[in-house]
Write a structure and sequence with these properties.
Blueprint lengths: L9 H13 L2 H9 L4 H29 L2 H5 L4 E2 H8 L3 H13 L3 E4 L3 E4 L1 H7 L2 H16 L3 H5 L7 H5 L13 H25 L7 E5 L5 H9 L4 E6 L1 H13 L6 E5 L13 E5 L7 H14 L5 E6 L8 H15 L7 H10 L2 E7 L8 E7 L6
Parallel strand pairs: 4-5, 4-7, 5-6, 7-8
Antiparallel strand pairs: 1-3, 2-3, 8-10, 9-10
Helix pairs in contact: 2-3, 3-8, 5-6, 8-11, 11-12
Length: 382
Amino acid sequence: MKPASQILSLHDRLLALRDSILSNLAFQRFSSTFAFLRPIARRRAAALFDLCAGFVYSQILLACVRLRLFDHLADGPVSATELSSRVSLPVDSTILLLDAATSLKLVQRRSGDRYGLGPLGAALMGNPGVIAMIEHHAMLYADLRDPVALLRGETGAGELASYWPYANAGKPAALGHDAIAPYTALMSASQPMIAQQVLHSYSFSHHRCLLDVGGGDGAFLSAVAARCPKLRCVLFDLPAVADEASRRFRNEGLASRAVAIGGSFLTSRLPEGADIVSLVRVIHDHDDADVMTLLRAIRIVLPGKGTLLIAEPMSGVRGTEAIGDAYFAFYLLAMGSGRPRTFERLQEMLQDSGFSDIALHPTSMPLLTSIITARADNKSVN
């Protein structure tokens, strides 16, 4: 008799049958010619090819961004000849790029042999955070040049590890302005998109004081403060980052009700007095031990029934599996810290840290962020 671990369930046997059919060359030839199966075969072939060609597509996008192609097309259609002069490329190369971008719906052919924005190019023009991430991805691609070596832990710290110095720093609170400036600027560019999702799904109007831990230069807190004029706001981040937030609060006229405090949540006690604490794209950057340290530190300063709000991309969210389980998994692996987590895993960690009433809130764009709220349990922290 086979060991239990080797016994196949009915589901496993059906999947094995499917695999044997799909991998059969005779069936592949038949499905590509049979009218009923041909559309399915073509979609699967296209999906497989997109996996193979994805890096090429991303480099076409990067070229468009670096040449500011979308900016040149934003005011109206332009000919390839005129564009070639603006972007300093030979005319043939400009046409090659424009045709490639057209196939990816970044650009669209217009009348008079001119080119304008395509639907995806137009969408990018309204999302400077995405533009910043496209530029940033050059570091990720460099770190992924040997994915097997990365998985085996043979590559050492790469470009992303240097870009996010707090992730592996022994004393992150000692990092100076020059060390934190690049990643602070990148997060600032993308925070408005996240803030929009959070504010659409959760109202802060019934709270009196919000503590945003790991809040960067204050972009998220500023968005919340604009929506809730009576809310007091406290930001806690590394000292050099908190200095940037203080400058933003002064410039935006928020200094009377928004303050930034410097420190490390791994070693410093968090500020008290807030009835809601937010963690916006913080937890997935850190390993389990550091996350538990942070959650317990928050529980200590939150009053009974105080609220914790977590906003970040999560693993296992239907429709965004490739974002959480592929993109963020390998991004964080290259970064050297953190991992994408499922709602169920985060629920366990929150319960172990003294939180209850844990709920997952829907957002209109889960590939950007999901939202979890939890209440501080009146019982003592485990």
